[in-house]
Amino acid sequence: MVEQVVRRIAERIFAEAPDGWSGAVALCRVAGRGGSLSGGYQGLGEGKRGHHRAGLFSEFETLAQAIQGGAVRVPLTMEVVCDPSGHYALVAAAGPISGVPPFRGGGFEVVLDPGHRFVPSGFRQEAGTAPPAGDPELAARRLRDYLARRSAILGRPEQLSPAASPAAIEEAEHRLGLPLPADLKAMYLVADGEDPRGPDRSLFANACWLSLESLVRQHLEQTVPGCADPDADWDEVFLHADPPHTVRRCAAHPGWVTFAMANDGDALAVDLAPARDGRPGQVIKYGPDLPDHPIYVADSVTSLLGGYLDRLEQGAYTHDTRRPGGLDLWADVYEDEAPSTVTGAIPNPVLPGLQEVHVNDPAGLVDLAPLTAATHLLRLRVNSGTTADLTPIGELPVEDLRLTVDGADLTPLAGHPALASLDLGSIGQVDLTPLSTIPNLHGLDLSRADARDLTVLAGLPGLRYLALTRRQWAHLRETGSTPATLAVARLAGEDATLTDVLAWAAGLGLDLAPVSELTGNLRT
């Protein structure tokens, strides 16, 4: 069965091959119900690489099931290599290994510590100390007024669940292990959320007000911190909400208690763990449509309701009679805008609110000095071009940095308190010694750098992710300098085969012997 499926994959690769191809690689990882497919055709000229069609993935799923004798229980990485002579070969390996797509530098990654998670910097932010802004009596009154005005516009009463009892609220807090804001509790003494059988279920700006039971269940099922795959977020940065330092910079947090949920998964939550300039009980928005930043909504549900009442008073809404409950405010009480990001060139002028800059195709050396005005800059990526002076970086709260240095040394980065991930290229040799003084550096890609002394890496106690070329990894191995703290390692470059990767992984202490190998020829 395995041989038949591999031959079918090879036949498809041959049938879809473009003119002039000299070889092809198809790399697929199947894990449970998902996976990835990469690779392509070789020999098509500089910068050209024909890609495999998406339908090939289903063939690899069948191959994975054939190799494992049924359902895919263990993640499986499979590589099929072909050439125009008709020769093809399969190598398959099970375990924590995956291909890296070209837009992320290519190569392979292996997970050395599957239990490790990269914790977002928001968990380390200074906590707020201000008192809550909510007023329970005012919140209850505003909720009743809001419901009455909506009912008058819609021509029917809102469909809400009966009020929760004080005992039910106390029980919910006990299960949460958190005290709910007083003004939110006052709302539940008016009604226990929207009736799930109602036609609209979008009381809070197209989000359904959850019952206490749903609130507790959703919070207990929420997964935080970090992500499911330890190799996914080594260079991830979460940006500030507006205003900065009000909401912790993370995708989710144990102190965020969702009380309203939209159909798309975005949620309104009360924040019980605000950042330095926030208040407990403030309302935030987060969810799948906001992967890199939460949104600050209001200082309390009391203020949120006040904003809704203002919109109704001003007539700033649309009543769509074609659908049940079709009442839409013209604008949310909050502005749903992404934090400031610039792609292209460094802007002139540079505004203080700038948080993320991607410099593409600059002419000559890139002068970073203007960026000192961006006092909230968290990510800087100079994707092409070089820079000769890193001094401005030392003055900024940059957490993720990608650039190529030309004659510059790394001394300005010494002791940088915020830098967590660095993707470094160089023209000429560069001394890595200053990196040993950066306290929060956990991710490092040196595959584009000519490092003077890679043995420095053994002295980086917080290093969890490292990307190097085959030659650089060999040097670490020969000198006994491979960092002992790594959770994820990457073999950079697009020329390595899966067989090469298995030998490299063995040098890191991973036993990833092939689970299936075979060769064949379509001419026979």
Model description:
Residues 163-311 form the Knr4/Smi1-like domain. Pfam families: SMI1_KNR4. InterPro entries: Knr4/Smi1-like_dom (IPR018958), Knr4/Smi1-like_sf (IPR037883), KNR4/SMI1_regulator (IPR051873), LRR_dom_sf (IPR032675). This is Knr4/Smi1-like domain-containing protein. It is a single chain. The protein is an alpha/beta fold. The chain folds into three domains: 2-99 and 516-521, 2-Layer Sandwich (Murine Class I Major Histocompatibility Complex, H2-DB, Chain A, domain 1), CATH 3.30.500; 122-329, SMI1/KNR4-like (3-Layer(aba) Sandwich), CATH 3.40.1580; 341-507, Ribonuclease Inhibitor (Leucine-rich repeat, LRR (right-handed beta-alpha superhelix)). Helix content is 21%, strand content 23%. The protein has nine helices and 22 strands. It has helices at residues 2-15, 56-68, 136-154, 166-176, 182-188, 212-221, 301-314, 470-479, 498-507; strands at residues 23-31, 34-42, 76-82, 87-94, 97-99, 108-111, 208-209, 256-261, 267-271, 282-286, 295-298, 317-320, 326-329, 341-344, 356-359, 379-382, 400-406, 421-430, 443-451, 465-468, 488-491, 516-521. It has a ten-stranded mixed beta sheet. A hairpin with a 2-residue loop joins β1 and β2 (34-42). It is globular and about 80 Å long.
